[in-house]
User: Which sequence fits this backbone?
């Protein structure tokens, strides 16, 4: 067991920590406030999601499940906005819902913003169903009857007979579902949605859980994945509408490079001290 | 660095290098074509009459970047003149005959092995010669084959124009007169549409009433006929006819009643809501118009509107011209793949040409042998499986049709189509979950039919029954009124008057200065209250509908289960276009009878069950062993060894011990394990008189932690030292929890922090905050994504299963140690299975054996 | 008392056994049982929130009453709770009394958009700073294992950002770093992840067996 660190060591560490925080703040702020740009090629998995949405005919329904809360907003909000912009550009009928009660406000923000840009009307061009508890039971109910699971939308309009839901009685009538998740909702959609009702499923998630989804990509249970802020930036690039995520990539690049330099610098210092101690014998 | 270390680094670096891509082959002179004798056309019983089959052997020069080219001449004249058209260019490593499903022989594997040495192509003459589609199939066509290499060259091509960036522009505000006109027209359209829907509702109601009258009349006639039954010889037939007519009318009446009550409610409510919104907007525009008329006068507004319309037209014309004007072309250099000289398959010094025609063989009837229907095993009783043998006539243009009929008193009723599947699909071997991996399954087709889907219960009748049941006991303000149909006429009348008023507004907009809004508000006073009243009623009806819907879901589920239990008869036919051939026995269609039953065991999970029970037995055996021999060896787990010293450190420094539970609920195993560790920590802390603070995120976990800590303090003989406020619910939300715990850490400066349980993104926030206070940190989690953060930020980390071993390790109880040893044995078995299985399958692949049984044994469904 | 221990243990065993059996039985009764249990579990969770709420209020009230260090934060907890609950109740009453247009100001939404969302996003954003300081502090090439970890972390971090493509282009292959990062994540990382998951799963089964058979009883409140 290590002995408690001395006060001097703690103070040194505190000063070093503050310098690092300052450097990180500069590394994030400077690219964000400036107009620096960098080109990058979208990942193949993001392209697959994009192409799938692009292949839907105008007027087709598409279900988007925004299963995240404000904590994951920075990564998933730009993703959701880019997806909805794509849907509205291609005159699709997005159906938006969420499994997280704390995600209702963000979902509402996103869809109203995207709809306003194109003059789309709720009930006619899109539906925002809001939140309902039930997790996998809700998915199963939606698989039997969408209008049965959500008899009214978020704005208290009845879903029965809604123009935006024309031809949609259940999940079986929806060709594509995309789930943006900060937790385990994607696995739930795979097990209880895609495998039972046969629609194509795409995913968007925070960067830390992206590796967990690779097995589903290999097995074909997911058509593609948008991983973290990079995934959102990839989608904006494919849509040719760079926005917050693309801008965020510059900050992310500079921060990663800073961390790498700090690590390398610390190791150089460490190794030189060791070699010095070794030379002294 | 040692030699071994250098070798390891080199191996790692090599492993990091990405495999070199296989670059396409340059066109090489002297490519060897396949043998001429192998290039031929052939027919097959599964031919569909649209395609010509070609096959040829393999060339020794097949590689990436080498292609086979097939050329065709559609008639003798073109063939003699050498006018061949290229119809296919396929990679030389693709399109093997063994890959073509319909040519696969399921009874003779030697044929399939031979097919691996042949290429195959199906050519559709109509696709190659679309201008001659009507006659090309009836003639002999001529084919020749060549092998060709490729090379990459640079070429100048026109650059694709860059699409303009998508930026939605803010639409300019319309002049006030144009806006008012447009909005009024929209309002009128909405009103007319609503009127149309309401009229439909009224007509539906009229049909409903008419049908009800007819039904009552029929019933009356039946009752009268019943009275004079003795004198009529033909009475039973007559009564039967009446009864059937009544039934037919009742069947029609019921859906209309339901449609009127509930189905039109939604659209009407939606539309009326839309009407109200547009009405508000229209009122706003008209008020703005009124104001503008007062300020500027009608002439100025008219002029402004005309000018705006001209501007819009001009902009549209300009945009159209811009789109039609060709852009100046720009060029770019691109690398393209170009074919080299083709080398033809030759015979006698000249390219070999084969002659063939698309033929349609006769459709073969499927055999009666092997045709059966049975309850699908390992399911919940909703499905029946129908299987039959494959036939030679399977291709992409034929399909199998499965028909179903309900059996009553042993006699099948009329047959209906239950499923239609492509003849090249629906194989029994595609469903190993239910039928296993037997090779015999490849000879059979199998389709799952849900009788409840083919004969669904009468949802409308069920709904009616549920409505009647619910109306019997519901409070008055929930149930729909019976006077609902009477509400429609006054609404319709008020709406018609409103439409007339709105029409007048649209026709004479200029003259309404000072009176526009007043006129509309006057019309509002009659229409809007009716609409509001109607909407309130529709809202009530909607609530009732939702309630009925939830009861109906249960009723439908029961009805579907009941429908599934009945007996059904099945027939199978092969269909090609208009021709259909049923499976027959004794010259008539053969019926297979079956009924679905819920099963008690999922046989596809048998391997799971066996492995689970085996593992449990091993654990149990070791628990028994540990009772007899308590001195079982357990390897050191540094994090758990450090627990006592960590608490001692806190005692010496006079600072508290923090125990942070994480975000898991009490149902999580890591939370249960964390609670076990908490018991030991609390007991030791009580003995040392050190304060323990437990940070909870979940109320149930908090309740359990309180009990555990209290009990630990009691066992340590210090029940007085226990403070319930030290085991607190900090915050139920993730980041509120982090902020609170972080703040407490910084203020109270604990000496020791335990981070045990299931964590999400907050793990590094907590660990790094704790590290900044100089506390010693011991973390344990089964959350794979957070382990790296704990490893970097904490002094000790229990990785994955070590947290589950904690209670056994700390208590050293023989029963728990035994279970730990059993778990380790299980892990050893898994490791051996992975290594042995991988080696076995690799060996099998190298030697050409099929040992996929090993893989299938561990298949999970 | 014997029933305080025995009845929970019996309940735990029976329900655990039924949940295990449900995995292997397709009969509709099994599915109905599972659905019923899930519903009851959700109901109990709802009641548990009351317990939590009481515990939270009790803690902060006693802090304020005793004026313990940091009692101002406790007062803030009450202020936040009162404001949020008040905003929600006010909106419900307003909607019940008269029709509220969509564009009307919503205090509850305002609190969500301008207080909760920024606060949660801010706390989550601190992660970036902490990651930098943790990486600086701990990524040292002390031995071979640590050196490998260091190299992998650098490769993955660099490969995930667009600037690596610019650097790769200078070296003649724009995608070398992204592909290296992907390879590390898809192969060694996935292999280790699966190994850890196998260990966790077996440990979880063993732990579950101990809980089911009553060998592990700490969660009941200690005592043997």
Assistant:
């Amino acid at each position: 067991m290590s002995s408690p660190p001395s006060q001097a060591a703690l103070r040194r560490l505190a000063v070093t920590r503050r310098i690092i925080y300052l450097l990180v703040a500069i590394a994030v702020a400077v690219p964000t406030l400036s107009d620096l740009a960098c080109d990058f090629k979208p990942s193949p998995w993001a392209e697959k999601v994009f192409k799938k949405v692009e292949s839907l005919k105008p007027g087709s329904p598409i279900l988007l499940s925004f299963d995240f809360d404000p904590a994951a907003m920075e990564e998933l909000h730009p993703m959701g906005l880019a997806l909805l912009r794509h849907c509205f550009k291609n005159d699709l009928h997005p159906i938006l819902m969420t499994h997280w009660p704390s995600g209702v406000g963000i979902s509402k923000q996103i869809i109203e913003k995207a709809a306003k840009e194109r003059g789309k009307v709720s009930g006619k061009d899109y539906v925002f169903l809001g939140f309902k508890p039930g997790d996998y039971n809700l998915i199963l109910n939606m698989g039997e009857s969408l209008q049965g699971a959500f008899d009214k939308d978020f704005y208290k309009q009845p879903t029965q007979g809604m123009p935006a839901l024309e031809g949609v009685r259940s999940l079986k009538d929806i060709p594509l579902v995309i789930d943006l998740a900060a937790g385990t909702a994607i696995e739930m959609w795979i097990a209880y949605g895609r495998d039972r009702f046969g629609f194509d499923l795409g995913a968007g998630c925070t960067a830390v859980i992206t590796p967990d989804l690779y097995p589903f990509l290999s097995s074909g249970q997911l058509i593609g994945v948008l991983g973290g802020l990079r995934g959102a930036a990839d989608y904006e690039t494919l849509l040719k509408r760079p926005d917050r995520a693309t801008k965020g990539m510059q900050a992310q690049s500079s921060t990663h490079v800073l961390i790498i330099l700090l690590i390398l610098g610390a190791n150089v210092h460490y190794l030189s001290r060791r070699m010095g101690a070794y030379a002294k014998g | 660095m040692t030699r071994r270390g250098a070798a390891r680094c080199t191996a790692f670096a090599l492993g990091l290098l990405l495999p070199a891509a296989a670059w396409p082959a340059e066109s090489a002179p002297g490519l060897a074509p396949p043998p001429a004798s192998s290039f031929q056309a052939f027919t097959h019983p599964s031919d569909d009459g649209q395609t010509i089959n070609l096959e040829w052997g393999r060339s020794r020069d097949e590689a990436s970047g080498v292609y086979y080219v097939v050329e065709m001449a559609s008639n003798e004249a073109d063939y003699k003149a050498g006018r061949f058209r290229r119809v296919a260019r396929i990679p030389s490593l693709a399109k093997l005959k063994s890959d073509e499903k319909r040519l696969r022989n399921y009874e003779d594997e030697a044929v399939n092995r031979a097919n691996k040495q042949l290429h195959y192509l199906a050519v559709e003459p109509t696709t190659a010669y679309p201008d001659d589609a009507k006659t090309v199939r009836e003639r002999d066509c001529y084919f020749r084959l060549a092998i060709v290499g490729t090379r990459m060259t640079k070429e100048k091509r026109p650059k694709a124009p860059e699409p303009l960036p998508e930026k939605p522009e803010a639409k300019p505000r319309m002049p006030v007169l144009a806006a008012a006109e447009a909005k009024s027209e929209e309002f009128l359209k909405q009103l007319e549409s609503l009127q149309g829907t309401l009229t439909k509702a009224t007509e539906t109601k009229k049909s409903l009433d008419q049908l009800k009258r007819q039904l009552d009349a029929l019933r009356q006639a039946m009752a009268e006929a019943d009275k004079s039954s003795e004198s009529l010889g033909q009475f039973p037939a007559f009564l039967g006819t009446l009864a059937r007519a009544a039934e037919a009318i009742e069947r029609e009446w019921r859906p209309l009643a339901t449609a009127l009550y509930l189905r039109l409610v939604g659209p009407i409510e939606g539309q009326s809501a839309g009407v109200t919104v547009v009405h508000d907007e229209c009122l706003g525009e008209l008020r703005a118009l009124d104001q503008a008329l007062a300020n500027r006068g009608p002439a100025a507004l008219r002029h402004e509107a005309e000018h705006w319309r001209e501007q819009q037209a001009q902009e549209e014309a300009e945009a159209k011209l811009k789109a039609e004007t060709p852009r100046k072309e720009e060029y770019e250099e691109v690398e393209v793949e170009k074919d080299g000289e083709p080398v033809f398959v030759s015979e006698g010094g000249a390219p070999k040409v084969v002659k063939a025609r698309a033929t349609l063989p006769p459709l073969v009837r499927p055999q009666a042998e092997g045709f059966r229907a049975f309850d699908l095993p390992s399911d919940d009783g909703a499905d029946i499986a129908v299987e039959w043998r494959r036939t030679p006539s399977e291709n992409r243009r034929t399909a199998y049709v499965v028909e179903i009929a309900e059996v009553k008193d042993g006699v099948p009723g009329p047959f209906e189509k239950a499923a239609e599947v492509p003849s090249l699909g629906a194989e029994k071997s595609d469903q190993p979950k239910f039928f296993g991996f037997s090779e015999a399954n490849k000879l059979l087709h199998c389709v799952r039919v849900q009788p409840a889907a083919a004969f669904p219960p009468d949802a409308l009748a069920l709904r009616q029954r549920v409505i009647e049941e619910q109306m019997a006991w519901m409070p008055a303000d929930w149930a729909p009124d019976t006077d609902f149909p009477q509400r429609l006429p006054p609404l319709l009348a008020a709406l018609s008057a409103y439409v007339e008023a709105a029409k007048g507004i649209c026709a004479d907009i200029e003259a309404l200065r000072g009176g526009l809004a007043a006129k509309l508000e006057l019309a509002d006073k009659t229409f809007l209250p009716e609409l509001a009243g109607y909407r309130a009623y529709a809202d009530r009806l909607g609530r009732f509908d939702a309630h009925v819907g939830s009861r109906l879901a249960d009723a439908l589920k029961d009805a579907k289960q009941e429908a599934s239990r009945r007996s059904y008869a099945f027939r199978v036919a092969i269909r090609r276009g208009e021709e259909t051939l049923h499976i027959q026995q004794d010259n008539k269609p053969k019926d297979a009878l079956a009924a679905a039953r819920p099963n008690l065991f999922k046989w596809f999970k048998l391997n799971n069950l066996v492995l689970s029970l085996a593992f449990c037995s091993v654990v149990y055996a070791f628990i028994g062993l540990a009772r007899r021999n308590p001195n079982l060896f357990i390897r050191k787990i540094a994090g758990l060894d450090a627990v006592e010293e960590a608490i001692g450190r806190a005692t010496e420094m006079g600072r508290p011990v923090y125990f942070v539970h994480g975000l898991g609920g009490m149902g999580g195993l890591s939370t249960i394990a964390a609670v076990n560790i908490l018991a030991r920590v609390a007991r030791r802390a009580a003995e040392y008189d050190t304060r323990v603070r437990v940070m909870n995120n979940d109320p149930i976990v908090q309740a359990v932690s309180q009990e555990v800590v209290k009990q630990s303090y009691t066992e340590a003989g210090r029940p007085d030292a226990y403070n319930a406020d030290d085991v607190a619910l900090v915050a139920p939300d993730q980041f509120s929890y982090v902020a609170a715990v972080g703040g407490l850490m910084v203020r109270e400066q604990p000496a020791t922090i335990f981070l045990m349980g299931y964590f999400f993104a907050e793990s590094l926030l907590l660990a790094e905050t704790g590290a900044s206070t100089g506390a010693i940190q011991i973390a344990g989690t089964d959350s794979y994504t957070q382990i790296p953060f704990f490893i970097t930020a904490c002094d000790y980390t229990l990785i994955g299963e070590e947290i589950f071993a904690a209670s056994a390790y700390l208590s050293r109880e023989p029963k728990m140690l035994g279970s730990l040893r059993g778990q380790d044995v299980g892990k050893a078995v898994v490791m051996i299975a992975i290594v042995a299985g991988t080696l076995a399958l690799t060996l099998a692949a190298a030697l050409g054996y099929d040992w996929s049984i090993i893989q299938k044994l561990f298949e999970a469904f | 008392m014997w029933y305080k221990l025995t009845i929970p243990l019996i309940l735990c065993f029976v329900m655990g056994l039924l949940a295990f059996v449900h995995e292997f039985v397709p009969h509709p009764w099994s599915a109905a049982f599972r659905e019923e249990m899930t519903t009851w579990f959700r109901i109990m969770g709802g009641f548990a929130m009351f317990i939590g709420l009481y515990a939270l209020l009790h803690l902060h009230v006693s802090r304020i009453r005793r004026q313990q260090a940091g009692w101002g934060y406790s007062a803030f907890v009450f202020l936040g709770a009162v404001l949020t609950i008040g905003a929600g109740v006010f909106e419900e009453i307003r909607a019940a009394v008269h029709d509220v247009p969509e564009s009307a100001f919503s205090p509850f939404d305002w609190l969500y958009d301008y207080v909760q969302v920024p606060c949660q996003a801010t706390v989550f954003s601190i992660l970036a700073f902490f990651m930098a300081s943790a990486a600086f502090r701990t990524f040292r090439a002390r031995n071979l294992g640590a050196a490998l970890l260091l190299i992998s972390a650098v490769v993955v971090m660099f490969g995930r950002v667009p600037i690596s493509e610019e650097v790769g282009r200078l070296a003649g292959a724009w995608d070398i770093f992204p592909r290296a990062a992907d390879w590390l994540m898809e192969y060694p990382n996935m292999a280790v992840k699966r190994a850890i998951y196998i260990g966790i799963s077996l440990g979880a089964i063993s732990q579950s067996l101990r809980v089911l058979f009553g060998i592990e009883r700490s969660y009941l409140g200690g005592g043997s």
Observations:
- The beta strands of chain A are 61-67, 93-98, 127-131, 176-181, 200-205, 225-227.
- The radius of gyration of chain A is 23 Å.
- Residues 63 and 145 of chain A are 14 Å apart (CA to CA).
- Chain A touches chain C through 52 residues (CB under 8 Å).
